[in-house]
Amino acid sequence: MTDYRSNPWWAEPASAPSQAMLTAAHERQNQLTKPPGALGRLEQIAIQLAAIQNQLKPNLEQVFIAVFAGDHGIVEEGVSAFPQAVTVEMQRNFINGGAAISVLAGELGATLEVVNTGTHAVPEQLPGVIHAPIANQTANFLLEPAMTDDQWQQALALGRASVQRAHQQGAQLYIGGEMGIGNTTAATAMLAQLADISVAEITGPGTGLNQHGVQHKIKVIRQALAQHAPLLTSSAAISRILGGFEIAALTGAYIAAAQVGIAVIVDGFICTAAAAAALQLNPSIEPYLFFSHCSAEPGHQRIIEHLGVQPIVDLNLRLGEGSGAATVVPLLRLACALHGKMATFAEAAVSKKLEP
Fold first, then answer.
1. Which of 130, 131, 178, 292 has the fewest CB atoms within 10 Å, counting from its CB?
2. Which structural domain, as residue segments, surrounds residue 142?
3. If you ran DSSP here, which 8-state letter would residue 29 be given?
4. CA 245, CA 249: separation in Å to the nearest integer?
5. Cβ–Cβ under 8 Å, residues 253 and 176
6. Pairwise CA distance, residues 23 & 129, whole Å
7. Which three-class secondary structure state does DSSP give residue 186?
8. Which one, of 174, 348, 164, lies nearest residue 264 by Cα?
9. Helices (H), the chain
10. Which pLDDT value is given to residue 5?
């Protein structure tokens, strides 16, 4: 068994965004023809992107989206309203252009890749999908850890490899998405443990469970947490024992993106679980993460409050796939355009605010 605790790549700190450029971008905002702060979050976003890109006028023309798909052994406990065949069927839909994230990627001019981290149904190569299965599915974490140490490392590495492809293409923004029947159960279990929040408070219907189904899901998660309690002593252990291949891949991707200086937009509930694990594994990545939206999944609001982050929008979304993150890209692009193209008071010959 590999010892992942000895100098792991995911613990290497990301470089801090340029403080000098942060200051310069803030000064530029104060010179633009508007009252200071009048563009609210758009100003803050542009300033942070300037610091990340270390250029006064950032841009986000090159967007890279990766959707990680994986199946979960916990589905054996009846925690999902959909069969696992959907994981494979949706991968085909992503590649064929019929899914929401496919449409959004096309409209944004973004690169879209789909990575199969391990699916139970039809595990063979699908045309257009990056085929990198770790196993057909994770183990049933009610009975045993979802992943072995080596499987967890493989999953993290799939995320890192995706970021390397994005970096090679000159990506300025990375979005991770997920597809996996049963993954709201895994994400809920992870977040309950990572944030020390009661299971009942953050468990939702996922893909459409009724009230009875949600109560059963709560029971299963509680039993699993009790079963593994002595081992759930670190974010690495929580991610490995309770998570999924696709969730761990997202965790690896978020860390790797920050390490190479690429800004990240985090999607909804499941991606937030991956991000929460990533932030505990490597706190230095925090300045690189933008949280896109507040999901309609009941526990998401509670989790983002715990993390102390402010989502960019709240559109009552709960689809996943990276769709919420992709939806806010135009807002980030507009923030950059306003920051870079508005005239300063001097350029426009407009009088500045009178000093008292």
1. 131
2. 63-331
3. H
4. 6
5. yes
6. 43
7. helix
8. 174
9. 19-31, 41-53, 85-96, 100-108, 149-168, 183-195, 199-202, 211-228, 235-242, 245-259, 269-281, 298-307, 323-327, 329-341, 345-348
10. 56
**Phi/psi zone of residue 271: left (φ > 0), alpha (ψ -120 to 50 degrees), beta?**
alpha
Catalytic member of 77, 321, 347, 355: 321
Could you tell me the CATH number of the domain that includes residue 108? Answer: 3.40.50.10210
Give the DSSP letter string of 75-113. GGGS--SS-THHHHHHHHHHHHT-SHHHHHHHHHT-EEE
Token look-up 């049933």 returns 140
For 229-241, what is each residue's pLDDT tens digit?
Answer: 999 999 999 999 9
Q: Measure Cα distances from 218 to 62, 108, 286 in Å.
A: 41, 38, 30
User: How large is the C-alpha radius of gyration of the chain?
Assistant: 21
Q: What is the rounded distance in angstroms from the CA atom of residue 189 to the CA atom of residue 239?
A: 10
Window from 51-55, 241-245, 294-298 with minimum mean pLDDT: 294-298
Count CA within 13 A, CB hemisphere, residue 260.
23
Cβ 157 vs Cβ 51: under 8 Å: no
Number of domains in the chain: 1
With tokens 């024992």, the residue in question is 241
Mean pLDDT of the chain: 95
Residue 221: alpha-carbon gap to chain centroid: 22
Each residue of 15-28: b (16+ CB within 10 Å) or e? eebbeebbebbbeb
Q: Strand 263-266 relative to strand 289-291: parallel, antiparallel, unpaired?
A: parallel
- Is 61 assigned a catalytic role? no
In a domain, 338, yes or no: no
Domain assignment of residue 19, yes or no? no
The two tokens of residue 61 are: 């023309």
Amino acid identity at 110: A
8 Å CB contact between 203 and 221? yes
Query: How many CB atoms sit inside 10 A of residue 228's CB?
Result: 20
352 occurs within a structural domain: no
Domain presence at residue 336: no
